[in-house]
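Spend some time on this chain, tokens included, and walk me through the fold:

. . .
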Amino acid sequence: MTEKPHRRMPREGFQRRGGPPHRFPPGAAVLAAVIQIWSAREAARHGLVFRPMDNLSYALLLAGPFVLLWRRKAPEVVFVLAAAASIGFVTFAEPKWSYAVAPAMALFNLTRRGRRWFPVIGAAVAYLAYLLVTVVFASRLGLDPRTRPDLGDSIVLAIWLFVLMLLGGAAKIRSEQMAEVMKVRAEKARAREEQEKRQASEERLRIARELHDVLGHHLSLINVQAGVGLHLMDNQPEQAREALSAIKTASSEALREVRAVLGVLRTEDEAAPRQPALGISRLGDLTADAGLPVTTTVSGEGRELPAEVDRAAYRIVQEALTNVRKHAGPEASATIAVDYLPTALHLAIRNEGGLAPEGLEPSEGTGIAGMRERAQTLGGSLEAGPVDGGYLVSVLLPTEDKQ
């Protein structure tokens, strides 16, 4: 006979095959068995068990604790079997609560698991069955008169069954409350994780946008100056030297800005960058390295801007100048107008040296789209298009007046 390949037992495998659930600790069953056996042996020593402690007696005492091992899978059946075994034992013993530890545990478990009306019905049926066997039909069954409970015992038993159901119901409510608390905590943890992921995604998008602006601006300038240097290297070496110097300056500035953009990725013990934050205050440095003539005018009462507005304004001007170098003619020049309005900042970047490539609309190209997205993120707007033989980018960025 060929041996079947070994398969790993599922977590709830014993339950599915009809055996006791292996995750349930047997402590309750062992405790019930110890109490019932010990109390029965003590009662037998004092003559309170009216037949020998033989295999049948031990079987009835152990049946209830044994079936407790299945109380999670089939709590109703467990309660019925445990109650029947205890009733069977008290037909030849003086009434004592310690013979019913297993059915008491089963009833508590049944109520705690929220089996609707079955705990009440089951407890009532078990109680009536006990009275019918030991009181009503005791003579017909030939039971010893000492097995009959008196009125006090019957009342105490009824109260004890009621208390067990109350305790089980309270445990059920407590379990549901704890489950709800854990659910709320899990939802909060999930919401916090989603928020952290969203913030990380937004930060990555911001870094990508910043890197696009930095690299697009400076690499474009380096490309133009490199072309000029190659063209003038043989005939006008001094001007070629100036082009190489501009490339060096642009590359150094690009490296500094890339470090600033990636500063969020620094470790805690790493020093912060020393250069000033990017903003309108550094517009002079930007235009000086633009690689084309730029005229800047400022109107309105200058003031400190919110950091995100200040940085966005700088990046938009940078991208607009990059577009001028890419798309305008060789004699291109640009004008920048900065207007401090009471509740906003207005920027106008105009190409005075030539038209944009034919067919280029304001909504086309990643440069204009990126500038518009940056402005709209701050609640502003951006318009771009041909005007009077050139090209105009007009930006309005809302800002608070901090004066």
Summary: The radius of gyration is 44 Å. Strands lie at 294-300, 334-340, 344-351, 381-387, 390-398.
